[in-house]
Amino acid sequence: MEKIMRFSQYQYLCRHMFETDDTGNIRQHYNSVEAELLPPLVLAYIGDAYFHLFVRTRLLLFEKNKVQVLNDFGAKIVSAVYQAYAYKNLKEELTLQERDIFRRAYNAKSHAPRAASIADYHTSTGIEAIIGYLQLTDNTVRLNKLCERAFQLIIKKIEQEYL
């Protein structure tokens, strides 16, 4: 019964989310995205995607031919465990606003995957929400600085563990 209800909710969303206008084009529901008003898990959704792309692009400076190596390292770097490690080493550098975004995302109700502890998962959600907020507000200088610091911290941690 629950799967049927979920599927019917999905069908409803699909019908209403992508409505067309009189010309047949898909009609947007909003004229802009106000990052301050978005739920923290939506910010984390955007931050997760951004950090994945940042890491994949950054890894090209180390390897350009072996996709499996790029994929393995990329997946490790963006894992909840390593993102939580980066946060623990970055938290003193965060602004008050970033700390508030982190707190709201950390405390948001979500389900942790089996690959990480609940604390690491919530911590990675918090850092992803900060990244999402910075990306959506076009704060590219701060965004790049934060992502680069996290990347460097994680790479050094991986080196310590595997070399």
Describe the structure.
- The mean pLDDT is 91.
- The protein has a single domain (35-162), classed as Ribonuclease iii, N-terminal Endonuclease Domain, Chain A (Orthogonal Bundle).
- Helix 2 packs antiparallel against helix 3, helix 4 (80-90) packs across helix 7 (140-162) and helix 5 crosses helix 6 (118-136).
- By secondary structure, it is mostly helical.
- It has helices at 2-17, 40-59, 67-77, 80-90, 96-107, 118-136, 140-162.
- 69% of the residues lie in helices and 0% in strands.
Topology of helices and strands:
Layout: H1 2-17, H2 40-59, H3 67-77, H4 80-90, H5 96-107, H6 118-136, H7 140-162
Distance between the termini: 51 Å
Largest sheet: none
How many extended strands? 0
CATH topology: Ribonuclease iii, N-terminal Endonuclease Domain, Chain A
**Element string (H = helix, E = strand):** HHHHHHH
Report the CATH architecture: Orthogonal Bundle
Q: Compute the number of structural domains.
A: 1
β-strand percent reads: under 5%
Number of helices: 7
Helix content: 55-70%
- CATH top level class name: Mainly Alpha
**Rough shape?**
globular
Low-confidence stretches: none
